[in-house]
Design brief:
The complex is a heterodimer of chains A (about 120) and B (about 110).
Chain A: E1 4-7, E2 10-13, E3 19-25, E4 32-38, E5 44-51, E6 57-58, E7 67-73, E8 76-81, E9 90-99, E10 104-108, E11 112-116
Parallel strand pairs in A: 2-11
Antiparallel strand pairs in A: 1-3, 3-8, 4-5, 4-9, 5-6, 7-8, 9-10, 9-11
Chain B: E1 3-5, E2 10-14, E3 19-21, E4 24-26, E5 31-38, E6 44-50, E7 56-58, E8 64-68, E9 73-78, E10 87-95, E11 103-104, E12 108-113
Parallel strand pairs in B: 2-12
Antiparallel strand pairs in B: 1-4, 3-9, 5-6, 5-10, 7-8, 8-9, 10-11, 10-12
Classes of the chains: A mainly beta (about 120), B mainly beta (about 110).
Amino acid sequence: GAVVSQHPSRVICKSGTSVKIECRSLDFQATTMFWYRQFPKKSLMLMATSNEGSKATYEQGVEKDKFLINHASLTLSTLTVTSAHPEDSSFYICSAPRTGLVDTEAFFGQGTRLTVV
Amino acid sequence: AQSVAQPEDQVNVAEGNPLTVKCTYSVSGNPYLFWYVQYPNRGLQFLLKYITGDNLVKGSYGFEAEFNKSQTSFHLKKPSALVSDSALYFCAVRDDNYGQNFVFGPGTRLSVLP
């Protein structure tokens, strides 16, 4: 079963409104989560690293005031797209690494298709 | 710095034929290599990984990949393709020198023709 749950899977919003996307690790604690954005027929681009208990780390070119990240607990990170515009329409995917005895493996959410009209 | 290249945007193969999706990487430390598959409007699904040990790694749905250190490659293979294998495939690398983040290749779209 899925170990990372992302919600909602699809959302349509009006331009100027804000949208919150949730990412939950279901059976493990994740002090770090990653948020990616995927453009059509393109690879995943890391937007930011969400850190539990501290500020998120944003990649160059990503507006931190537009893409608000809150890592409220060890199992939940949220991405809020504020004052959304049509150019923010995209597929957003979260990921949570789980460290085992040997290595760290990444688990991905199902993705959120955001359409801003 | 770490990077991943997938030289082919698109791979077409007939059903029943073997398939190969290519991946090369660059890391400063030891590479942890992964393959993920993505179906339309879905998140990424894990296929297989190489951490250490045997260079030939077997994964889900009959896929396998061979780690070649000298060529810095990690090509994905399957002996007999299915139409249902048609999807977008991503190679990814994690370098412990750079924390827990994964760097993804640009993706290769696989089309298996009936």
